[in-house]
Write the structure tokens for this entry.
Amino acid sequence: MRTSTLGSALIVSTVSAWSGEPKFGTFQASVKSAVVGAVGAAVSAGVVVSPASAGDVARGQQIFNMNCAACHAGGQNVIMPEKTLEKDALEKYLSGGRSEASVVTQVTYGKAAMPAFGGRLTDSEISDVASYVIQTSENGWK
């Protein structure tokens, strides 16, 4: 089986854009029908359709190790021990819950004792770190 993350992202965002009746006529309804049909065909053909990850997890790990591990080694938090990067703690303490978007916001703007990295890291680097944090929290920090 293979995964098409770019295709998945396009399909998810396209289908999400039409959460109700089309606003501009039958063209949008036809496109929506085609996209929904393509998803069904892909699944039937054995193609795994999964949500796209916004960033590169391997690169995110490297950036994390260079910029974040001093305070968050092994997914922990040396400043505020209860606010780890573990799955449950991210869901409980991260503004917006456990998601890449919430991690991006936290890393970009900082909060409380955490400094902002928006001026130090590029948007792409922050996205990669967010992908790494979310995936690693899902798999368990080691």
In short: The chain has a mean pLDDT of 77. The helical segments are 5-17, 26-44, 57-67, 69-72, 87-93, 100-109, 123-139. The two ends are 28 Å apart (CA to CA).
